[in-house]
Amino acid sequence: MQAKLIESSEIAPLVRHFVFEVPEVEKFTFIPGQFVSMNEMINGKKITRPYSIASAPSDTNRFELCLNLVHEGLLSPRLFAMQPGESMEIRPPLGMFVLRNPGREAVFVATGTGIAPFRSILKAHLHETSQAFTLIFGVRHESHLMYRAEFEEMAAKFPHFRFLPTLSRPTESWTGRSGHVQAHLQEAICERRDIDVFLCGLKLMVDDVRNILKEMGFDRKQILFEKYD
What we know:
With 229 residues, the protein is an alpha/beta fold. The protein has two domains: 2-94, Elongation Factor Tu (Ef-tu), domain 3 (Beta Barrel); 106-228, Rossmann fold, CATH 3.40.50.80. It has helices spanning 76-81, 116-125, 148-157, 185-189, 203-216, and strands at residues 2-12, 15-21, 35-42, 45-52, 62-68, 87-94, 106-111, 133-139, 161-167, 177-178, 196-202, 223-228. A six-stranded antiparallel beta sheet has the order 4-3-6-1-2-5, with no helix packed on it. Strands 10-9-8-7-11-12 form a six-stranded parallel beta sheet, with helices on both faces. A hairpin with a 2-residue loop joins strand 1 and strand 2.
């Protein structure tokens, strides 16, 4: 099927938010946390890349992505060059990075554009009577806190949602948390062991946090992750 670009906008340096629609269906169906694979012929070779959906399911045929530009990459420069009205082939949504225990408290740990599936899950599942969620979001600079206003609004509206942004390279004006996400796991977990922990980001972070959680006593079934290089 084809996904047609509706609009895209820069939400952080070298990061864009994309809105696509799928004209051949009335409703684009997926589970929050899943990904779509984009396909394009580049230099005579078909290139496929999976990207987490950043929006919640709706009654429309639209979906949203959050992507960073990889200059040496094969597909992201093409996506960043797309103009509204242009299309790209996609495969139907897939993936098991979804809530598996409805009603069970969850901690999300994201770095960079790994925030995308958590935005989808929170926009779909966070409400007045939902389970509690905690989001640790780590980036280098304050300008890279994608969707910050949305998460702050969620935290203000829902007392059972905690938003813990942290910067690894803060300026003197930053008064929030600093350092890597690993430094704030204990604050997020609060000695709990009856919760699920979701990790999404670079391989180094995911592997390190998984090891820390296992040392804390978490079962591997409680740790769900997606990682990329």
